[in-house]
Design a protein that fits this description.
- About 3% of the residues have low confidence.
- A hairpin with a 3-residue loop joins strand 10 and strand 11.
- By secondary structure, the protein is an all-beta fold.
- It starts with a strand and ends with a strand.
- An 11-stranded antiparallel beta sheet has the order 1-2-3-4-5-6-7-8-9-10-11, with no helix packed on it.
Amino acid sequence: VKGFQLNDKLHTNILAHTSFSRMTMDNNHDGFTDMPVFMNLNLRNKWNYLSESGFRFQAMLQASSYENQAGQIDHSHHTSHTGSDYIINQNHKSLQAQFKTGWELNSEKESSFAILYKFNYATQGGDIVSRIINNNQVYASISPIYYTNLSGENSKIKLGLQSLYNNEHERIGSLHFNKKEFVNGAFGEWTGKRENMTVILGFRGDYHNELGFFASPRAT
């Protein structure tokens, strides 16, 4: 982890992680590895900007890669019914990005307005013996949110909208699966406090391109 204070308003940090196992083990001598050999890499970068006027910008970028191999290590026996060695290879890669822009509207009422952006692209490849794996996903969403106090700390309200797009393609051998979603929704949430009791009432409505409209009430 490494952080940088670029100036009074802007700072960033970089986080990196890796784990791996390259040793093949077969303690019970059955010709199959006891645990997969793998390589895992992760890199994340965060940014935070806060101006004197109350404008805030936050960003997070992350890239990850994971590869592993499992299955048969003794190729002289234990073959599959197809005659091939029973070996499983998998690799997963993803790229994520999240952004938030926010404005302070009224400091006394703690009123604020923010827009959240999310993006994710992921791929999964490999094979299980002779079955090819080829999957990918693209996800994106945007959500503006308004928040304010109605009467001090005892009554707060949050209102927002959300639009999301999700596109998935999956292939495992001869099996194919595709899904494309568009969802637009709106939500509201009220929080009330009195002495030692807190009440939260919320309602959300969404329209899905295949499922149509559905409502999600909430009370706690």
